[in-house]
Amino acid sequence: MSAPSAPPKVPSSSIPRPTAPSPGRRRAVDWRIRFVALSLIWGFSFLLIKVGTHGYAPFQVTFGRLLFGTAVLAVAIAVRRERLPRSGRTWGHLFVAAFLLNALPFSLFAYAELTIPSTLAGICNATSPLWGMALSLVALSEDRPTRRRVAGLGLGFIGVLTVLGAWQGFSGLDFGGTAMALLASLSYPIGWIYVRRTLAGTGSSALAMTGSQLFLGTLQLAVVTPVFTSFPERFPLLPTLSVIALGALGTGLALLIQYGLVQEVGPTTAQMVTYFIPVIATAAGVAVLGEQLNWNTPVGALVVLAGAALTQSRPRPSTGPARIPGRRPFSRS
Q: Three-state DSSP class for 79?
């Protein structure tokens, strides 16, 4: 997403189509186990952000996250001998994508969790498909509104108001932190739309594009972080481990798992992980961090997820000619 970053969308011809693995090349770990692992990793990311901010400034948390995430993907790219983009124009678009999909939302979530619980941050992240639906109706002519999708959009935002406790005047809510978390979730679909419009037909793999994007995001934070923060005087153990895990596992390894899931079972199944993230984030925040949970938070979260699921639904294909597989661009949760 915080969530997680989304790999840049690449042309369908460069994404291996899911096929049943042959006996000689069957994966060691079943895709369902990897799906659960991905859900847990991304769900716990909000807890790791919260713990990381206990010892480091938000920009430092984000820089560490991108640094260790880039390192993991760099190793994977080297092992698989992937070819990085060569066009300067592609790198320019990736620079913008890195800001919209990584540097900006990661930093906003880190700042947001200074004042709001990790549970609320995880639920705000789940609004990303709702923002994407609203934006795509304006920016992408091929995404036509349907009654079901419009109903999902309305239902989702009713869920947001439920989570925020609108009927009681949003009492006890930190507006600044909540607004930053919602802006972070809005940044993802803006970035996806930008990538979809500018980075189709590059010829590079999703892994190479994602690694390049994270590298550029790391450079952006390397410039910004020293300007707004001072070098840490100490490196507390738990926050340090949290930042390392957030980068190496929550960003680098998670994207590798997602990349493999898309190859094996397709993007539609892989993106279903979106709907498990807020559930796990809420459970982790309550169980590990002892965050309080009012009844409206889980109820509103379920309404948000139901609305998001409706906005992502597609009409059943007609009985006409078979649709060419792989025509819809890759997208993430």
A: helix
